[in-house]
Each structure stands twice: as C-alpha cells, then as structure tokens.
C-alpha cells in the first residue's frame, strides 16, 4: 500500500507541472492588460503610461514569460502562490477564504447525489426489465445529460421567482445552499444510479446469492445483508471520484448562483486577468 501511494504521489508531479504550464500560457495569450484594469478600469481612466509601466515593473509583468513562470513554480514549491493583481492580497489567503464555501457545496451536492442516485439504482436493479427499471434509467440519463447552467437557471426560475421558496443567489445560509446543491447533485445522481444498478445486478447473479435463495432467505435479507456490501465496492470508489470532481467542478454552479467559492473566484480572476489567482485556483483544483 505504501509503495502504491508513493507511485501515485510521484505521478502527481508531471500532471501538476503540465497543468500550471498550460494555464500560464493561456492566461498570457488572452487579450487585455491586468495593470490597465487595475488602474483605470475597462473603460479607460487617468492612469498614464508611466504609471502602467511602473506597476508592471513592481508586479514583475515586464519580465520574460519563462522568468515569470519559473518564479511562480519556485514560490509554489514553498507554498507561496503569489499575490493577487486585483485584490493585492496573498493568493493563498484568498483561496483559503473561499474554499470552505466550495467544500460545503460539494458535500451538499454529494448528499443529494446519494439520496437520489442510490435508491433509484437499487430500485432499477430489483425491478430489472420492468417499467420501473426503464423509468428509473430514463430519469438517470436525463439528469446526467442536462447542462449545469441550464438546470441552474430552470431551478432559479421555478423555485426562486415562481414559488419564492429559496433565494436565487448568494451564500451564507442553508436556504442559499439548497438550489446549488440540487444542481450539483442531480447531474452526479444520473451516473451514480446507473453504476448502482449495474453493480447490484452483477452481484445478484453470483452463486452465493442463488445459494441464499435456495436456503429460503427472504429477498430483503439477500439484498441488504449479502448483496449490499459487495455491490458497494465500485460505488464507494466512484463516490470518492465524484466528490473530487465536485470540489473542482463548481465553477458554473457558483457563478450562476453567485456563491463566494473557488469557482466564482476563478471566473472573476479570468475576467480581470489576475494571473496568480487563476494559477493558484487551478493548481488547487488539479491537485484535488
């Protein structure tokens, strides 16, 4: 186990290197000047060319790209992700301030995914080949196929503006968490329900299940006492991957619902060409 974990940790190094390199090159290829946005805004202002050049020099943006990249890598290796161009705060502090909100949303989305996907998959497996099975899998495919931004807008329109049950945006309370969690959980529930169904069907065809039935065990005892543990092995693995994906994939959800998380921070940083923040956030997501 120790050797396996060591190999996996070593494989992280080239992946993170490539991620940081690609993001760094893309951010510098985008049009726009972060210094100009800082001093005069997108519509122009009173900043002089000397002011712009002086600030670029202070931020190290006049250095060659390779020098800027190596400087970022060197600082990142000791835990320093740099300073935000827009906020003039350490990127590490910004990320740590926003990460709890993203973590809360990912946990809530995972709970929604389990609450919907697991019963749906078990029901489809037990009623295999019947109309309940077809209906359950149709709902699973619909949930997995819906674009996140479209589902977010539909939930806001119906539950926020029509029924007035939940606020349309913001963070900080349980009511603000419900709609984003449902959005995140529904898309993951589709994959989870299909996996639960296939896993249960495979286990229910095993010899020890037939032996249990031959001994007169009830169907509920076979399902929950014997099939459940073995069927959950691949499901638990996928749940771990889904949770990591939710932590790194909340960009659209947090943006639509205006939640103060890592995803929203990335979008704002891209609009402001805040290189250190984008690189720091993407590095965190890639690590997750």
Structure description:
The chain has 288 residues and is mainly α. It has 2 domains: 2-95 and 275-287, no CATH class; 97-263, MetI-like (MetI-like fold), CATH 1.10.3720. The chain has helices at residues 2-29, 34-40, 49-59, 65-76, 91-126, 131-145, 148-162, 174-204, 207-214, 219-248, 251-256, 262-271, 275-287. The longest helix is centred in the middle third of the chain and has 36 residues, at 91-126. The protein is elongated, with a radius of gyration of 24 Å.
Rg estimate, integer Å = 24 Å
How many domains? The number is 2
From the 3D coordinates, which CATH architecture of the largest domain would you assign?
Orthogonal Bundle
What characteristic shape results from the CA principal axes?
Answer: elongated
| Structural category | mainly alpha
Q: What is the ordering of alpha helices and beta strands? A: HHHHHHHHHHHHH
Helix content: over 70%
The largest pleated sheet is described as: none
Number of helices: 13
Summarize the structure.
The chain is built from 13 helices and no strands.
What is the topological layout?
Layout (H helix, E strand, L loop, with lengths): L1 H28 L4 H7 L8 H11 L5 H12 L14 H36 L4 H15 L2 H15 L11 H31 L2 H8 L4 H30 L2 H6 L5 H10 L3 H13 L1
Helix pairs in contact: 1-13, 5-6, 5-8, 5-10, 5-13, 6-8, 7-8, 8-10, 12-13
């Amino acid at each position: 186990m120790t050797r396996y974990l060591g190999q996996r940790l070593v494989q992280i190094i080239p992946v993170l290197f490539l991620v940081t390199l690609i993001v760094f090159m893309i951010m510098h290829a985008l049009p726009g000047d972060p210094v100009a946005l800082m001093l005069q805004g997108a519509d122009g202002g009173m900043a002089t060319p000397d002011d712009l050049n002086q600030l670029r020099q202070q931020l190290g943006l006049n250095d060659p790209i390779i020098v800027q990249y190596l400087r970022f890598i060197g600082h990142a290796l000791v835990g320093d992700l740099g300073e935000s161009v827009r906020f003039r705060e350490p990127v590490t502090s910004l990320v740590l301030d926003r990460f709890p909100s993203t973590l809360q949303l990912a946990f809530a989305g995972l709970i929604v995914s389990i609450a919907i996907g697991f019963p749906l998959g078990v029901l489809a497996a037990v009623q295999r080949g019947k109309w309940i099975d077809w209906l359950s899998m149709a709902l699973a495919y619909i949930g997995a196929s819906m674009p996140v931004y479209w589902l977010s807008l539909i939930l806001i329109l119906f539950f926020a503006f029509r029924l007035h049950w939940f606020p349309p945006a913001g963070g900080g309370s349980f009511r603000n968490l419900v709609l984003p969690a449902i959005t995140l959980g529904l898309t993951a529930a589709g994959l989870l329900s299909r996996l639960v169904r296939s896993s249960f069907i495979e286990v229910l065809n095993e010899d020890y299940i037939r032996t249990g039935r031959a001994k007169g065990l009830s169907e509920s005892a076979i399902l929950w006492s014997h099939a459940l543990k073995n069927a959950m092995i691949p499901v638990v693995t996928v749940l771990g991957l889904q949770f990591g994906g939710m932590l790194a994939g909340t960009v659209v959800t947090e943006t639509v619902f205006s939640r103060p998380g890592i995803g929203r921070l990335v979008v704002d940083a891209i609009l402001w060409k805040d290189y250190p923040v984008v690189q720091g956030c993407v590095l965190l997501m890639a690590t997750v």
